[in-house]
Amino acid sequence: MGIETACLVVNKENGRAKDFMIVGVDNGYCRIYYNAYNQEGQKLLYCLQDEGDRFGGVLCYRCSTDGEPDYSIKYGKDRFEVPQGSSDIELVVRNYLTT
Q: Each residue of 84-95: pLDDT tens digit?
């Protein structure tokens, strides 16, 4: 599994800079999908996925065009939009991003 350091253009959400903006929630696979733009203006798909504490907790993946996690990347938690819903994965990711 490779690691990519994302270099992204900043979006704005409620006056705060966010690179990764939520585009979907998949409760079945414990994923929250995010879009982000690279320096060439290409929209890329990422997800935060709960792998469970035994396997590393919440990890960020660059996803293929069909939404499957491809490889993990490094990121800063403050770059992600925080989910506001009440599903299990949204609660886990919100806790992860805000602690």
A: 999 999 999 999
Burial class of residue 7, CB neighbours in 10 A (0-12, 13-18, 19+)? exposed
**How do the domains of the chain map onto residue ranges?**
3-98
User: With contact defined as beta carbons under 8 Å apart, do 22 and 14 qualify?
Assistant: no
Query: What are 60-71's pLDDT values in tens digits?
Result: 999 999 999 999
d(CA 19, CA 7): 9
Q: What share of the chain is helix, strand, coil (3-state, %, to 5)?
A: 15, 45, 35
Alpha-carbon distance of 22 to 57, in angstroms, equals 19
- Residue partners of 63: CB distance under 8 A and separation at least 6: 33, 45, 46, 47, 69, 70
This prediction has a pTM of 0.81
Sort strands 3-5 and 69-74 into parallel, antiparallel or unpaired: parallel
